[in-house]
Amino acid sequence: MPKRRLLYSLVPLLLLAALAFLVWRGRLDGISPTAQTLRAWFQSPEVRPALISRLTAPCPNAPFLLPSTGFVGFLYGDPTAPYTPLAPHTGIDIFGDGTVGSIPVYAAYDGYLTRLPEWRSSVIIRHPSDPLQPDRQIWTYYTHMASENGAQSYIVDDFPPATSEKFVQRGTLLGYQGLYSGAAYRIGLHVHFSVVLSEPDGSFRNETQIGNTLDPSPYLGFNVDARRSPTIPIRCGS
After folding, report:
1. Does any domain span residue 22?
2. Is 61 left (phi over 0), alpha (psi -120 to 50) or beta?
3. Interval 177-185 mean pLDDT
4. Whose CA is closest to 108, among 125, 93, 120, 90?
5. In a domain, 134, yes or no
């Protein structure tokens, strides 16, 4: 009996160890379809031109404009560090090839822009009627548009802190890609973009939880879901 009890007590520990291993693998490399390519983006600049998506208009039959030019290197549902399989990436990251504060970021779709007073690098746009499901409201969120220490915002002057419900059209210049993360880890030059659901009261949900966001793929016209084997680099219809 003591041996059987010992065996039973070890089973949860073994399951936890297996889970920790999967999380560790997800943090390091193997699960994300873009992990190796993203590493090459930073280590070998000569590969960058072939990885960049340059879309000046929405893909055919897609409502959203890709909000910036660059390598779509972190995908929706991506477990690459600092994310994990248990807490994956909630949008896409578009990595620009250029200097900080020089790669434009545009509104993906018509809507009403808000920038909270404390937001250094972020704006969010309310879309009263989801173009793919008109009976619901959604939001699009754009962030990292500031210097690494947050001292300089790269959001354009048209949208100062405390801006609320200012109408913008698809293609409106919002700001420029930056480095600000507001966290201990460093990030490369990029903009983060996500599609966020509304709360019942019409406010936006917490974007850091994947259950509060939508896969941007059908809105953009190409697959950016890490769980559905996307083609890299991203192209319309891929």
Report:
1. no
2. left
3. 84
4. 125
5. yes
pTM of the model: 0.86
- β partners of residue 167: 112
Say how far apart CA 231 and CA 146 lie, in whole Å: 30
For 50-103, how does the pLDDT look when each residue is reduced to its tens digit (9 = 90+)? 999 988 899 999 999 999 999 999 999 998 878 888 899 999 999 999 999 999
Is residue 123 within 8 Å of residue 116, measured between CB atoms?
A: no
Residue with tokens 């900080």: 100
Question: Do 133 and 194 form a contact (C-beta atoms < 8 A)?
Answer: no
- Distance from C-alpha of 118 to C-alpha of 182, rounded to nearest angstrom: 12
Q: Are 54 and 68 in contact (CB under 8 A)?
A: no
The residue among 135, 114, 141, 126 whose CA lies nearest residue 202 is 126
**Structural domain boundaries enclosing 221:** 31-228
CATH number of the domain residue 160 falls in: 2.70.70.10
- Tally of domains within the chain: 1
Could you tell me how far CA 179 lies from the centroid of its own chain?
14
Using the 8-state DSSP alphabet, how is residue 140 labeled?
E
First to last CA, the chain: 58
Q: Where are the alpha helices (DSSP H) in the chain?
A: 2-28, 35-43, 48-51, 217-220
Q: Considering the domain boundaries, does residue 88 fall inside one?
A: yes
Band of pLDDT at residue 217, cut at 50, 70 and 90: very high
Q: What is the DSSP letter of 64?
A: P
For residue 105, pLDDT over 60 is answered with yes
Residue 57 domain-assigned?
yes
> Which structure tokens are listed for 168?
């913008």
